[in-house]
Protein backbone atom coordinates (compact mmCIF):
# COMPACT_ATOMS: atom_id res chain seq x y z
CA UNK A 1 0.00 0.00 0.00
CA UNK A 2 1.23 3.47 -0.84
CA UNK A 3 -0.03 6.44 1.15
CA UNK A 4 0.38 9.99 -0.11
CA UNK A 5 -0.23 13.02 2.07
CA UNK A 6 -0.60 16.31 0.26
CA UNK A 7 -2.24 19.69 0.70
CA UNK A 8 -3.04 22.66 -1.53
CA UNK A 9 -2.00 26.15 -0.47
CA UNK A 10 -2.31 29.45 -2.38
CA UNK A 11 0.99 31.21 -3.02
CA UNK A 12 -0.30 34.68 -3.98
CA UNK A 13 -2.15 37.51 -2.15
CA UNK A 14 -5.84 37.00 -1.56
CA UNK A 15 -8.80 39.37 -1.43
CA UNK A 16 -10.91 39.60 1.70
CA UNK A 17 -14.63 39.23 1.10
CA UNK A 18 -16.66 39.27 4.26
CA UNK A 19 -16.29 36.22 6.41
CA UNK A 20 -14.31 34.25 3.90
CA UNK A 21 -11.17 34.73 1.89
CA UNK A 22 -11.82 34.29 -1.83
CA UNK A 23 -8.67 33.65 -3.89
CA UNK A 24 -8.92 34.75 -7.53
CA UNK A 25 -6.52 35.61 -10.31
CA UNK A 26 -3.79 33.57 -11.99
CA UNK A 27 -4.20 29.96 -11.00
CA UNK A 28 -0.87 29.23 -9.26
CA UNK A 29 -0.90 26.54 -6.62
CA UNK A 30 1.72 24.84 -4.48
CA UNK A 31 1.37 21.16 -3.80
CA UNK A 32 3.12 20.47 -0.50
CA UNK A 33 3.76 16.88 0.44
CA UNK A 34 3.09 17.21 4.17
CA UNK A 35 0.81 15.54 6.64
CA UNK A 36 -2.51 17.04 5.70
CA UNK A 37 -4.59 14.21 4.34
CA UNK A 38 -3.71 10.61 3.66
CA UNK A 39 -5.11 9.13 0.50
CA UNK A 40 -5.02 5.52 -0.48
CA UNK A 41 -4.22 5.49 -4.19
CA UNK A 42 -4.36 2.38 -6.26
CA UNK A 43 -1.83 1.78 -9.00
CA UNK A 44 -4.22 2.95 -11.71
CA UNK A 45 -4.99 6.16 -9.79
CA UNK A 46 -1.26 6.82 -9.43
CA UNK A 47 -0.88 6.84 -13.19
CA UNK A 48 -3.99 9.04 -13.48
CA UNK A 49 -2.61 11.63 -11.06
CA UNK A 50 -0.49 13.55 -13.63
CA UNK A 51 -3.46 13.63 -16.00
CA UNK A 52 -5.70 15.02 -13.23
CA UNK A 53 -3.20 17.78 -12.55
CA UNK A 54 -3.03 18.52 -16.27
CA UNK A 55 -6.77 18.95 -16.47
CA UNK A 56 -6.76 20.97 -13.25
CA UNK A 57 -4.39 23.61 -14.57
CA UNK A 58 -6.48 23.95 -17.73
CA UNK A 59 -9.54 25.21 -15.88
CA UNK A 60 -10.73 28.74 -16.46
CA UNK A 61 -10.14 31.54 -14.00
CA UNK A 62 -13.64 31.42 -12.59
CA UNK A 63 -13.37 27.71 -11.87
CA UNK A 64 -10.04 27.92 -10.07
CA UNK A 65 -11.23 30.01 -7.16
CA UNK A 66 -10.57 28.44 -3.80
CA UNK A 67 -12.76 29.42 -0.89
CA UNK A 68 -10.92 29.37 2.43
CA UNK A 69 -13.37 29.54 5.34
CA UNK A 70 -12.43 31.52 8.40
CA UNK A 71 -11.60 28.63 10.65
CA UNK A 72 -9.07 27.91 13.31
CA UNK A 73 -8.39 24.58 11.68
CA UNK A 74 -5.75 25.21 8.99
CA UNK A 75 -6.45 21.84 7.42
CA UNK A 76 -9.95 22.55 6.11
CA UNK A 77 -10.18 23.58 2.46
CA UNK A 78 -13.34 23.82 0.43
CA UNK A 79 -12.88 23.68 -3.33
CA UNK A 80 -15.68 25.49 -5.12
CA UNK A 81 -15.25 23.65 -8.42
CA UNK A 82 -15.78 20.21 -6.92
CA UNK A 83 -17.98 20.85 -3.93
CA UNK A 84 -15.87 18.45 -1.89
CA UNK A 85 -14.17 19.15 1.42
CA UNK A 86 -10.66 17.98 2.20
CA UNK A 87 -10.47 17.46 5.94
CA UNK A 88 -7.70 16.34 8.17
CA UNK A 89 -6.22 16.74 11.59
CA UNK A 90 -3.91 19.49 12.68
CA UNK A 91 -0.27 19.40 11.64
CA UNK A 92 1.75 16.94 13.66
CA UNK A 93 4.62 14.57 13.15
CA UNK A 94 4.21 11.64 10.77
CA UNK A 95 6.15 8.40 10.81
CA UNK A 96 7.03 6.98 7.43
CA UNK A 97 9.22 4.08 6.48
CA UNK A 98 12.25 4.05 4.21
CA UNK A 99 14.38 1.10 3.14
CA UNK A 100 16.62 0.85 6.20
CA UNK A 101 15.19 3.00 8.98
CA UNK A 102 12.09 4.73 10.30
CA UNK A 103 12.10 8.50 9.95
CA UNK A 104 9.89 11.13 11.54
CA UNK A 105 8.76 14.10 9.48
CA UNK A 106 7.89 17.20 11.47
CA UNK A 107 5.88 20.19 10.39
CA UNK A 108 8.97 22.37 10.62
CA UNK A 109 10.86 20.18 8.15
CA UNK A 110 11.43 21.62 4.72
CA UNK A 111 8.85 20.22 2.30
CA UNK A 112 9.25 19.56 -1.36
CA UNK A 113 6.95 21.70 -3.46
CA UNK A 114 5.83 21.79 -7.04
CA UNK A 115 4.31 24.85 -8.68
CA UNK A 116 1.88 24.49 -11.55
CA UNK A 117 0.72 27.43 -13.61
CA UNK A 118 -2.11 27.61 -16.11
CA UNK A 119 -0.76 28.55 -19.56
CA UNK A 120 -1.72 31.86 -20.99
CA UNK A 121 -4.53 31.00 -23.39
CA UNK A 122 -4.26 34.40 -25.04
CA UNK A 123 -1.13 33.19 -26.81
CA UNK A 124 -3.22 30.66 -28.72
CA UNK A 125 -5.35 33.44 -30.15
CA UNK A 126 -2.40 35.37 -31.59
CA UNK A 127 -0.23 32.54 -32.93
CA UNK A 128 -1.85 29.18 -32.13
CA UNK A 129 0.65 27.02 -34.03
CA UNK A 130 3.72 28.53 -32.40
CA UNK A 131 2.19 28.33 -28.93
CA UNK A 132 1.04 24.76 -29.54
CA UNK A 133 4.47 23.68 -30.77
CA UNK A 134 6.16 25.27 -27.76
CA UNK A 135 3.92 23.47 -25.28
CA UNK A 136 4.14 20.24 -27.26
CA UNK A 137 7.90 20.14 -26.68
CA UNK A 138 7.30 20.25 -22.93
CA UNK A 139 5.02 17.18 -22.92
CA UNK A 140 6.64 14.12 -21.35
CA UNK A 141 4.03 11.41 -21.95
CA UNK A 142 1.27 10.56 -24.43
CA UNK A 143 -1.34 11.62 -21.86
CA UNK A 144 0.28 15.05 -21.60
CA UNK A 145 0.00 15.45 -25.37
CA UNK A 146 -3.64 14.37 -25.36
CA UNK A 147 -4.44 16.83 -22.56
CA UNK A 148 -2.85 19.60 -24.61
CA UNK A 149 -4.82 18.59 -27.71
CA UNK A 150 -8.01 18.57 -25.65
CA UNK A 151 -7.41 22.14 -24.46
CA UNK A 152 -6.58 23.44 -27.93
CA UNK A 153 -9.26 21.45 -29.78
CA UNK A 154 -8.27 19.00 -32.51
CA UNK A 155 -7.06 20.80 -35.63
CA UNK A 156 -5.79 19.11 -38.78
CA UNK A 157 -2.43 20.88 -38.54
CA UNK A 158 -1.66 19.42 -35.10
CA UNK A 159 -2.44 15.76 -35.85
CA UNK A 160 0.95 14.75 -37.26
CA UNK A 161 3.04 16.60 -34.67
CA UNK A 162 0.88 15.35 -31.78
CA UNK A 163 1.08 11.68 -32.77
CA UNK A 164 4.81 11.95 -33.47
CA UNK A 165 5.45 13.57 -30.09
CA UNK A 166 3.42 10.84 -28.39
CA UNK A 167 5.65 8.22 -29.97
CA UNK A 168 8.86 10.09 -29.11
CA UNK A 169 7.91 10.27 -25.42
CA UNK A 170 7.73 6.46 -25.26
CA UNK A 171 11.08 5.77 -26.93
CA UNK A 172 13.36 6.30 -23.93
CA UNK A 173 11.29 4.73 -21.14
CA UNK A 174 11.30 1.16 -19.85
CA UNK A 175 9.07 -1.53 -21.33
CA UNK A 176 6.88 -1.71 -18.24
CA UNK A 177 6.37 2.04 -18.13
CA UNK A 178 5.69 2.10 -21.87
CA UNK A 179 3.00 -0.54 -21.37
CA UNK A 180 1.20 1.60 -18.80
CA UNK A 181 1.61 4.81 -20.78
CA UNK A 182 0.12 3.22 -23.90
CA UNK A 183 -2.71 1.79 -21.83
CA UNK A 184 -3.50 5.23 -20.42
CA UNK A 185 -3.27 6.65 -23.92
CA UNK A 186 -5.81 4.16 -25.25
CA UNK A 187 -8.20 4.92 -22.38
CA UNK A 188 -7.91 8.68 -22.81
CA UNK A 189 -11.11 10.11 -24.37
CA UNK A 190 -9.16 12.49 -26.61
CA UNK A 191 -7.20 9.70 -28.30
CA UNK A 192 -10.26 8.42 -30.13
CA UNK A 193 -11.05 11.97 -31.24
CA UNK A 194 -7.49 12.42 -32.48
CA UNK A 195 -7.60 9.19 -34.52
CA UNK A 196 -11.01 10.14 -35.91
CA UNK A 197 -9.66 13.55 -36.91
CA UNK A 198 -6.65 11.89 -38.58
CA UNK A 199 -8.98 9.70 -40.63
CA UNK A 200 -11.24 12.60 -41.65
CA UNK A 201 -8.42 15.03 -42.45
CA UNK A 202 -6.13 12.54 -44.23
CA UNK A 203 -7.04 13.85 -47.73
CA UNK A 204 -6.11 17.38 -46.61
CA UNK A 205 -2.66 16.43 -45.30
CA UNK A 206 0.56 16.93 -47.21
CA UNK A 207 2.56 13.92 -48.33
CA UNK A 208 5.22 14.14 -45.62
CA UNK A 209 2.52 14.58 -42.94
CA UNK A 210 0.82 11.42 -44.16
CA UNK A 211 4.07 9.45 -43.94
CA UNK A 212 4.89 10.68 -40.43
CA UNK A 213 1.32 10.12 -39.23
CA UNK A 214 1.36 6.54 -40.49
CA UNK A 215 4.69 5.87 -38.80
CA UNK A 216 3.50 7.29 -35.47
CA UNK A 217 0.30 5.21 -35.53
CA UNK A 218 2.26 2.04 -36.27
CA UNK A 219 4.85 2.77 -33.57
CA UNK A 220 2.12 3.50 -31.00
CA UNK A 221 0.61 0.08 -31.61
CA UNK A 222 -2.65 1.20 -33.22
CA UNK A 223 -4.40 -1.77 -34.81
CA UNK A 224 -3.29 -1.90 -38.43
CA UNK A 225 -6.71 -3.10 -39.58
CA UNK A 226 -8.40 -0.06 -38.02
CA UNK A 227 -10.19 2.55 -40.12
CA UNK A 228 -7.61 5.24 -39.45
CA UNK A 229 -4.61 3.17 -40.62
CA UNK A 230 -6.39 1.70 -43.64
CA UNK A 231 -7.73 5.12 -44.67
CA UNK A 232 -4.26 6.66 -44.55
CA UNK A 233 -2.88 3.76 -46.59
CA UNK A 234 -5.55 4.33 -49.26
CA UNK A 235 -4.88 8.07 -49.37
CA UNK A 236 -1.13 7.47 -49.75
CA UNK A 237 -1.82 5.04 -52.61
CA UNK A 238 -3.81 7.69 -54.46
CA UNK A 239 -1.15 10.38 -53.94
CA UNK A 240 1.99 8.26 -54.17
CA UNK A 241 3.29 10.14 -57.20
CA UNK A 242 3.23 13.37 -55.16
CA UNK A 243 5.90 12.05 -52.75
CA UNK A 244 8.93 14.08 -53.83
CA UNK A 245 10.46 14.59 -50.38
CA UNK A 246 13.18 11.97 -49.84
CA UNK A 247 12.71 12.03 -46.07
CA UNK A 248 9.00 11.26 -46.46
CA UNK A 249 9.82 8.40 -48.83
CA UNK A 250 12.40 7.09 -46.35
CA UNK A 251 9.89 7.18 -43.48
CA UNK A 252 7.23 5.50 -45.60
CA UNK A 253 9.60 2.74 -46.72
CA UNK A 254 10.70 2.13 -43.13
CA UNK A 255 7.08 1.67 -41.99
CA UNK A 256 6.66 -1.54 -43.97
CA UNK A 257 9.26 -3.33 -41.86
CA UNK A 258 6.79 -3.32 -38.93
CA UNK A 259 3.50 -3.62 -40.80
CA UNK A 260 1.46 -6.76 -41.26
CA UNK A 261 0.40 -8.00 -44.65
CA UNK A 262 -2.94 -6.72 -45.94
CA UNK A 263 -4.43 -5.75 -49.29
CA UNK A 264 -3.78 -2.04 -48.87
CA UNK A 265 -0.33 -2.57 -47.35
CA UNK A 266 0.82 -4.97 -50.07
CA UNK A 267 -0.54 -2.78 -52.86
CA UNK A 268 1.18 0.32 -51.48
CA UNK A 269 4.42 -1.59 -50.96
CA UNK A 270 4.50 -2.77 -54.57
CA UNK A 271 3.72 0.71 -55.85
CA UNK A 272 6.47 2.22 -53.72
CA UNK A 273 8.95 -0.34 -55.05
CA UNK A 274 8.14 0.64 -58.64
CA UNK A 275 8.64 4.33 -57.90
CA UNK A 276 11.87 3.85 -55.94
CA UNK A 277 13.34 1.53 -58.57
CA UNK A 278 12.99 4.33 -61.13
CA UNK A 279 14.46 6.90 -58.73
CA UNK A 280 17.51 4.88 -57.59
CA UNK A 281 19.96 6.82 -59.82
CA UNK A 282 18.66 10.16 -58.48
CA UNK A 283 18.73 9.31 -54.75
CA UNK A 284 20.63 11.94 -52.76
CA UNK A 285 19.92 10.86 -49.17
CA UNK A 286 21.92 8.04 -47.57
CA UNK A 287 19.00 7.24 -45.28
CA UNK A 288 16.65 6.83 -48.24
CA UNK A 289 19.21 4.51 -49.83
CA UNK A 290 19.23 2.34 -46.68
CA UNK A 291 15.44 2.14 -46.45
CA UNK A 292 15.14 1.46 -50.18
CA UNK A 293 17.56 -1.44 -49.94
CA UNK A 294 15.67 -2.87 -46.97
CA UNK A 295 12.34 -2.40 -48.73
CA UNK A 296 13.43 -4.54 -51.69
CA UNK A 297 14.93 -7.12 -49.32
CA UNK A 298 16.77 -10.32 -50.11
CA UNK A 299 14.20 -11.33 -52.75
CA UNK A 300 15.11 -8.42 -55.03
CA UNK A 301 16.26 -9.28 -58.53
CA UNK A 302 19.94 -9.28 -59.43
CA UNK A 303 19.43 -6.21 -61.63
CA UNK A 304 17.92 -4.19 -58.76
CA UNK A 305 20.69 -5.27 -56.39
CA UNK A 306 23.27 -4.23 -58.96
CA UNK A 307 21.65 -0.78 -59.24
CA UNK A 308 21.63 -0.40 -55.46
CA UNK A 309 25.26 -1.48 -55.20
CA UNK A 310 26.31 0.97 -57.90
CA UNK A 311 24.44 3.81 -56.21
CA UNK A 312 25.92 2.98 -52.80
CA UNK A 313 29.46 2.96 -54.21
CA UNK A 314 28.85 6.38 -55.75
CA UNK A 315 27.80 7.79 -52.35
CA UNK A 316 30.56 6.35 -50.12
CA UNK A 317 32.08 9.81 -49.65
CA UNK A 318 28.89 10.89 -47.86
CA UNK A 319 28.91 7.96 -45.42
CA UNK A 320 29.35 8.86 -41.77
CA UNK A 321 30.45 6.30 -39.19
CA UNK A 322 26.82 5.59 -38.32
CA UNK A 323 25.92 5.26 -42.02
CA UNK A 324 28.69 2.69 -42.45
CA UNK A 325 27.39 0.62 -39.54
CA UNK A 326 23.85 0.62 -40.91
CA UNK A 327 25.11 -0.15 -44.41
CA UNK A 328 26.81 -3.30 -43.12
CA UNK A 329 23.54 -4.37 -41.46
CA UNK A 330 21.55 -3.53 -44.58
CA UNK A 331 23.82 -5.59 -46.83
CA UNK A 332 23.30 -8.54 -44.49
CA UNK A 333 19.51 -8.06 -44.55
CA UNK A 334 19.28 -8.12 -48.35
CA UNK A 335 22.07 -10.74 -48.69
CA UNK A 336 24.16 -8.54 -50.98
CA UNK A 337 27.81 -9.61 -50.79
CA UNK A 338 29.45 -6.60 -52.41
CA UNK A 339 33.15 -6.97 -51.65
CA UNK A 340 34.15 -3.44 -52.78
CA UNK A 341 31.44 -1.90 -50.61
CA UNK A 342 32.21 -4.18 -47.67
CA UNK A 343 35.93 -3.40 -47.88
CA UNK A 344 35.23 0.35 -47.79
CA UNK A 345 32.93 -0.04 -44.79
CA UNK A 346 35.41 -2.30 -42.99
CA UNK A 347 38.26 0.16 -43.46
CA UNK A 348 36.28 3.01 -41.90
CA UNK A 349 35.03 0.82 -39.07
CA UNK A 350 38.54 -0.42 -38.26
CA UNK A 351 39.83 3.15 -38.07
CA UNK A 352 37.06 4.20 -35.67
CA UNK A 353 36.52 1.01 -33.67
CA UNK A 354 37.06 2.89 -30.39
CA UNK A 355 33.95 5.01 -31.12
CA UNK A 356 31.60 2.06 -31.63
CA UNK A 357 29.44 0.67 -28.83
CA UNK A 358 29.46 -2.97 -27.80
CA UNK A 359 25.99 -3.55 -29.24
CA UNK A 360 27.06 -2.22 -32.62
CA UNK A 361 30.25 -4.31 -32.53
CA UNK A 362 28.15 -7.43 -32.01
CA UNK A 363 25.82 -6.42 -34.84
CA UNK A 364 28.79 -5.86 -37.16
CA UNK A 365 30.27 -9.30 -36.47
CA UNK A 366 26.89 -10.96 -36.90
CA UNK A 367 26.43 -9.20 -40.25
CA UNK A 368 29.87 -10.39 -41.36
CA UNK A 369 28.92 -13.93 -40.34
CA UNK A 370 25.64 -13.77 -42.27
CA UNK A 371 27.45 -12.49 -45.37
CA UNK A 372 30.36 -14.94 -44.89
CA UNK A 373 32.64 -11.94 -45.17
CA UNK A 374 35.97 -11.72 -43.35
CA UNK A 375 38.34 -8.79 -43.10
CA UNK A 376 41.61 -9.36 -41.27
CA UNK A 377 42.24 -5.67 -40.58
CA UNK A 378 38.76 -5.15 -39.09
CA UNK A 379 38.83 -8.28 -36.93
CA UNK A 380 42.35 -7.57 -35.66
CA UNK A 381 41.40 -3.99 -34.78
CA UNK A 382 38.39 -5.19 -32.76
CA UNK A 383 40.48 -7.83 -30.97
CA UNK A 384 43.26 -5.42 -30.04
CA UNK A 385 40.80 -2.72 -28.94
CA UNK A 386 38.92 -5.10 -26.63
CA UNK A 387 42.18 -6.51 -25.25
CA UNK A 388 43.53 -3.04 -24.44
CA UNK A 389 40.26 -2.01 -22.75
CA UNK A 390 39.44 -5.37 -21.13
CA UNK A 391 38.59 -3.91 -17.66
CA UNK A 392 35.67 -2.07 -19.32
CA UNK A 393 33.98 -5.32 -20.40
CA UNK A 394 32.42 -8.02 -18.25
CA UNK A 395 32.79 -11.75 -18.85
CA UNK A 396 29.51 -12.05 -20.72
CA UNK A 397 30.42 -9.33 -23.23
CA UNK A 398 33.87 -10.79 -23.90
CA UNK A 399 32.45 -14.28 -24.40
CA UNK A 400 29.78 -13.03 -26.80
CA UNK A 401 32.52 -11.47 -28.93
CA UNK A 402 34.64 -14.63 -28.72
CA UNK A 403 31.76 -16.84 -29.82
CA UNK A 404 31.09 -14.57 -32.81
CA UNK A 405 34.77 -14.79 -33.74
CA UNK A 406 34.53 -18.57 -33.38
CA UNK A 407 31.69 -18.66 -35.92
CA UNK A 408 33.85 -16.54 -38.22
CA UNK A 409 36.81 -18.90 -37.61
CA UNK A 410 39.01 -16.01 -36.57
CA UNK A 411 41.42 -16.42 -33.66
CA UNK A 412 41.72 -13.10 -31.74
CA UNK A 413 45.07 -13.87 -30.12
CA UNK A 414 45.39 -10.61 -28.16
CA UNK A 415 41.88 -10.84 -26.71
CA UNK A 416 42.13 -14.55 -25.84
CA UNK A 417 45.48 -14.08 -24.06
CA UNK A 418 44.19 -11.11 -22.04
CA UNK A 419 40.95 -12.87 -21.10
CA UNK A 420 42.83 -16.03 -20.06
CA UNK A 421 44.86 -13.95 -17.58
CA UNK A 422 41.61 -12.69 -16.03
CA UNK A 423 40.33 -16.27 -15.73
CA UNK A 424 43.55 -17.37 -14.04
CA UNK A 425 43.32 -14.51 -11.53
CA UNK A 426 39.55 -14.76 -10.86
CA UNK A 427 38.28 -18.21 -11.85
CA UNK A 428 35.29 -18.05 -9.48
CA UNK A 429 33.84 -15.12 -11.43
CA UNK A 430 32.81 -17.51 -14.22
CA UNK A 431 29.24 -18.76 -14.29
CA UNK A 432 28.37 -22.18 -15.71
CA UNK A 433 27.36 -20.61 -19.00
CA UNK A 434 30.59 -18.58 -19.08
CA UNK A 435 32.59 -21.76 -18.52
CA UNK A 436 30.86 -23.49 -21.43
CA UNK A 437 31.62 -20.54 -23.72
CA UNK A 438 35.28 -20.45 -22.66
CA UNK A 439 35.81 -24.16 -23.28
CA UNK A 440 34.02 -24.07 -26.63
CA UNK A 441 35.89 -21.07 -28.06
CA UNK A 442 39.38 -21.94 -26.78
CA UNK A 443 39.17 -25.61 -27.81
CA UNK A 444 37.63 -25.04 -31.24
CA UNK A 445 40.10 -22.30 -32.17
CA UNK A 446 42.94 -24.56 -30.94
CA UNK A 447 44.44 -21.69 -28.96
CA UNK A 448 47.60 -22.42 -26.97
CA UNK A 449 48.56 -20.03 -24.18
CA UNK A 450 52.23 -21.07 -24.03
CA UNK A 451 53.47 -20.34 -20.48
CA UNK A 452 49.96 -19.82 -19.08
CA UNK A 453 48.49 -22.99 -20.58
CA UNK A 454 48.74 -25.18 -17.48
CA UNK A 455 47.51 -22.45 -15.11
CA UNK A 456 44.57 -21.79 -17.42
CA UNK A 457 43.59 -25.48 -17.56
CA UNK A 458 43.80 -25.80 -13.77
CA UNK A 459 41.59 -22.73 -13.32
CA UNK A 460 38.84 -23.92 -15.66
CA UNK A 461 39.03 -27.42 -14.14
CA UNK A 462 38.51 -25.91 -10.68
CA UNK A 463 35.42 -24.07 -11.93
CA UNK A 464 34.16 -27.21 -13.70
CA UNK A 465 34.42 -29.28 -10.52
CA UNK A 466 32.44 -26.66 -8.57
CA UNK A 467 29.56 -26.96 -11.08
CA UNK A 468 29.56 -30.77 -11.37
CA UNK A 469 26.42 -31.26 -9.20
CA UNK A 470 24.46 -28.81 -11.39
CA UNK A 471 25.58 -30.02 -14.83
CA UNK A 472 23.52 -32.26 -17.07
CA UNK A 473 25.07 -35.32 -18.66
CA UNK A 474 25.26 -33.68 -22.09
CA UNK A 475 26.92 -30.52 -20.74
CA UNK A 476 29.42 -32.64 -18.82
CA UNK A 477 30.28 -34.61 -21.97
CA UNK A 478 30.84 -31.38 -23.93
CA UNK A 479 33.06 -29.90 -21.22
CA UNK A 480 35.21 -33.03 -20.84
CA UNK A 481 35.60 -33.39 -24.62
CA UNK A 482 36.82 -29.77 -24.86
CA UNK A 483 39.40 -30.38 -22.12
CA UNK A 484 40.55 -33.58 -23.81
CA UNK A 485 41.32 -31.52 -26.93
CA UNK A 486 43.94 -29.75 -24.78
CA UNK A 487 45.28 -33.17 -23.68
CA UNK A 488 43.98 -32.44 -20.21
CA UNK A 489 42.08 -35.24 -18.47
CA UNK A 490 40.60 -34.12 -15.11
CA UNK A 491 39.91 -37.06 -12.82
CA UNK A 492 36.68 -36.02 -11.06
CA UNK A 493 34.73 -35.02 -14.22
CA UNK A 494 35.89 -38.18 -16.01
CA UNK A 495 34.81 -40.41 -13.13
CA UNK A 496 31.34 -38.88 -13.11
CA UNK A 497 31.09 -39.10 -16.90
CA UNK A 498 31.96 -42.81 -16.91
CA UNK A 499 29.29 -43.75 -14.38
CA UNK A 500 26.76 -46.24 -15.67
CA UNK A 501 23.72 -44.04 -15.07
CA UNK A 502 25.35 -41.10 -16.90
CA UNK A 503 26.29 -43.25 -19.90
CA UNK A 504 22.79 -44.73 -20.03
CA UNK A 505 21.29 -41.25 -19.99
CA UNK A 506 23.55 -40.14 -22.84
CA UNK A 507 22.61 -43.17 -24.93
CA UNK A 508 18.94 -42.58 -24.20
CA UNK A 509 19.18 -38.93 -25.30
CA UNK A 510 20.96 -39.94 -28.54
CA UNK A 511 23.61 -37.31 -27.96
CA UNK A 512 25.35 -36.08 -31.12
CA UNK A 513 28.64 -36.82 -29.37
CA UNK A 514 27.85 -40.53 -29.37
CA UNK A 515 29.01 -42.29 -32.52
CA UNK A 516 26.16 -44.18 -34.21
CA UNK A 517 28.30 -46.20 -36.61
CA UNK A 518 29.30 -43.54 -39.14
CA UNK A 519 33.03 -42.79 -39.04
CA UNK A 520 35.38 -40.38 -40.70
CA UNK A 521 36.67 -43.26 -42.81
CA UNK A 522 33.17 -43.95 -44.13
CA UNK A 523 32.75 -40.28 -45.00
CA UNK A 524 36.09 -40.05 -46.81
CA UNK A 525 36.20 -43.45 -48.49
CA UNK A 526 33.84 -42.36 -51.25
CA UNK A 527 35.80 -39.17 -51.95
CA UNK A 528 38.29 -39.49 -54.82
CA UNK A 529 41.77 -38.10 -54.36
CA UNK A 530 42.49 -35.06 -56.48
CA UNK A 531 44.27 -36.34 -59.62
CA UNK A 532 46.41 -33.19 -59.94
CA UNK A 533 47.73 -33.71 -56.40
CA UNK A 534 48.43 -37.39 -56.98
CA UNK A 535 50.23 -36.76 -60.28
CA UNK A 536 52.39 -33.98 -58.81
CA UNK A 537 53.41 -36.15 -55.85
CA UNK A 538 54.40 -39.08 -58.05
CA UNK A 539 56.45 -36.83 -60.32
CA UNK A 540 58.14 -35.29 -57.29
CA UNK A 541 58.80 -38.39 -55.15
CA UNK A 542 58.27 -41.40 -57.41
CA UNK A 543 55.33 -43.77 -57.70
CA UNK A 544 56.61 -46.18 -55.05
CA UNK A 545 56.71 -43.51 -52.36
CA UNK A 546 53.06 -42.43 -52.67
CA UNK A 547 49.96 -44.33 -51.49
CA UNK A 548 46.50 -42.81 -51.85
CA UNK A 549 43.20 -43.34 -50.00
CA UNK A 550 44.62 -44.84 -46.81
CA UNK A 551 42.29 -45.67 -43.89
CA UNK A 552 44.10 -45.84 -40.56
CA UNK A 553 42.67 -47.69 -37.56
CA UNK A 554 39.38 -48.00 -39.43
CA UNK A 555 38.57 -44.38 -38.61
CA UNK A 556 41.02 -41.86 -40.11
CA UNK A 557 40.94 -41.25 -43.86
CA UNK A 558 44.24 -40.03 -45.35
CA UNK A 559 44.28 -38.73 -48.92
CA UNK A 560 47.93 -39.57 -49.59
CA UNK A 561 50.69 -41.17 -47.53
CA UNK A 562 54.27 -40.36 -48.52
CA UNK A 563 56.92 -42.79 -47.25
CA UNK A 564 60.46 -41.42 -47.09
CA UNK A 565 63.37 -43.83 -46.49
CA UNK A 566 65.69 -43.10 -43.54
CA UNK A 567 68.83 -41.12 -44.30
CA UNK A 568 70.93 -43.10 -41.81
CA UNK A 569 70.64 -46.50 -40.17
CA UNK A 570 69.72 -44.94 -36.83
CA UNK A 571 66.75 -43.04 -38.26
CA UNK A 572 63.35 -44.60 -38.89
CA UNK A 573 61.14 -44.45 -41.94
CA UNK A 574 59.20 -41.20 -42.13
CA UNK A 575 55.49 -41.39 -42.96
CA UNK A 576 53.86 -38.14 -44.04
CA UNK A 577 50.04 -37.97 -44.10
CA UNK A 578 48.70 -35.44 -46.60
CA UNK A 579 45.16 -34.30 -45.80
CA UNK A 580 43.26 -32.29 -48.41
CA UNK A 581 41.27 -29.65 -46.54
CA UNK A 582 39.08 -26.65 -47.32
CA UNK A 583 39.75 -23.07 -46.11
CA UNK A 584 37.34 -23.64 -43.20
CA UNK A 585 39.89 -25.98 -41.63
CA UNK A 586 42.16 -23.00 -40.88
CA UNK A 587 41.77 -19.88 -38.81
CA UNK A 588 41.04 -16.97 -41.09
CA UNK A 589 44.18 -15.30 -42.38
CA UNK A 590 46.52 -18.01 -41.06
CA UNK A 591 47.46 -21.65 -41.54
CA UNK A 592 46.50 -22.43 -37.93
CA UNK A 593 44.23 -25.54 -37.93
CA UNK A 594 40.92 -25.47 -36.07
CA UNK A 595 38.14 -27.86 -35.12
CA UNK A 596 38.19 -31.39 -36.50
CA UNK A 597 41.34 -30.75 -38.56
CA UNK A 598 43.33 -29.88 -35.43
CA UNK A 599 41.99 -32.99 -33.67
CA UNK A 600 42.94 -35.26 -36.60
CA UNK A 601 46.46 -33.84 -36.58
CA UNK A 602 46.90 -34.73 -32.90
CA UNK A 603 45.62 -38.27 -33.38
CA UNK A 604 47.71 -38.95 -36.49
CA UNK A 605 50.83 -37.77 -34.67
CA UNK A 606 50.11 -40.33 -31.94
CA UNK A 607 49.84 -42.98 -34.68
CA UNK A 608 53.33 -42.17 -35.97
CA UNK A 609 52.49 -39.87 -38.88
CA UNK A 610 53.64 -36.37 -39.69
CA UNK A 611 50.39 -34.69 -40.79
CA UNK A 612 50.45 -32.04 -43.53
CA UNK A 613 47.36 -30.02 -44.45
CA UNK A 614 47.07 -29.27 -48.16
CA UNK A 615 44.81 -26.29 -49.01
CA UNK A 616 42.93 -27.68 -52.00
CA UNK A 617 41.33 -24.39 -53.03
CA UNK A 618 44.77 -22.85 -53.44
CA UNK A 619 46.30 -25.95 -55.03
CA UNK A 620 43.69 -26.24 -57.79
CA UNK A 621 44.21 -22.64 -58.90
CA UNK A 622 47.99 -23.10 -59.44
CA UNK A 623 49.94 -24.26 -62.46
CA UNK A 624 51.85 -27.57 -62.46
CA UNK A 625 55.16 -25.88 -61.59
CA UNK A 626 53.57 -23.83 -58.81
CA UNK A 627 51.91 -26.95 -57.38
CA UNK A 628 55.29 -28.66 -57.22
CA UNK A 629 56.82 -25.71 -55.36
CA UNK A 630 53.91 -25.62 -52.90
CA UNK A 631 54.17 -29.33 -52.10
CA UNK A 632 57.93 -29.01 -51.61
CA UNK A 633 57.34 -26.29 -49.01
CA UNK A 634 54.74 -28.40 -47.22
CA UNK A 635 56.60 -31.73 -47.24
CA UNK A 636 60.17 -30.46 -46.80
CA UNK A 637 59.82 -27.26 -44.74
CA UNK A 638 63.34 -27.53 -43.26
CA UNK A 639 64.92 -27.88 -46.69
CA UNK A 640 63.03 -24.81 -47.89
CA UNK A 641 64.24 -22.82 -44.88
CA UNK A 642 67.83 -23.94 -45.53
CA UNK A 643 67.55 -22.89 -49.18
CA UNK A 644 66.21 -19.48 -48.18
CA UNK A 645 69.10 -18.97 -45.74
CA UNK A 646 71.64 -19.86 -48.42
CA UNK A 647 70.03 -17.43 -50.88
CA UNK A 648 70.17 -14.66 -48.27
CA UNK A 649 73.86 -15.34 -47.57
CA UNK A 650 74.72 -15.23 -51.28
CA UNK A 651 72.90 -11.92 -51.69
Instruction: State the helix count.
Output: 30
The percentage helix is 40-55%
Evaluate the radius of gyration.
37 Å
Nearest-integer average pLDDT = 79
InterPro entries: FAST_kinase, FAST_Leu-rich, RAP
Subcellular location: Mitochondrion
Domain RAP: 576-633
GO molecular function, one term: RNA binding
Walk me through the structure:
54% of the residues lie in helices and 11% in strands. The protein has a 5-stranded antiparallel beta sheet with strand order 3-4-7-8-9, with no helix packed on it. Strands 13-14-15-16 form a 4-stranded mixed beta sheet, with helices on both faces. Strands 2-5-12 form a 3-stranded antiparallel beta sheet, with no helix packed on it. Strand 10 and strand 11 (102-105) form a beta hairpin. Helix 14 packs parallel to helix 16. The longest helix has 17 residues, at 263-279.
Task: Provide a compact summary of the structure.
By secondary structure, the chain is an alpha+beta fold.
